[in-house]
Amino acid sequence: MNKLKLETYLKIFFFICLISIISAYFIEYKLGHQPCNLCLIERIPYLLGLGLIVINYIFAKNERFIILLLILIFTFSLIISLYHFGIEQSIFEESAICGLKGSDEVLSKEELLKQLNKKVISCKDVTFKIFGFSLTTINIILSFVIIITLTNIFKNYEKFKS
Q1: pLDDT, average across residues 128-155
Q2: Shortest CA distance to 144 belongs to which of 92, 79, 50?
Q3: Which CATH architecture has domain 3-161?
């Protein structure tokens, strides 16, 4: 396999990350489905993935290290998504993460009352599905496929590079 193959994979992962982020914001702001706190956390790996791939193209150094970082980032994504899926399926209880929203911004009694009156989105509630799957389930699948593919590339780096 030649270098084009590795570049092709990185471009595919870039577009997966980009489409995932754009879709999340579209679903939130255009379709009006408010995300829970875990949903917001699940966006972080995709933003980091975008940044790392851009850094890789700008500097074209330490490509193997970037791939390793992407594997670690999407492993984090998989773990968070599995935890979120467990909450959705009532395997796990909701944690404090699910109820905290901007708690560091509460400064006065009035602000506290505003926060209490706001509807907090539960991590158990699935407000949006695609083909019957929650976005968390789709994130589990995407993260798993990305991890497996990147691990294969990392192990056989010289084949993908040359």
Answers
A1: 90
A2: 79
A3: Up-down Bundle (1.20)
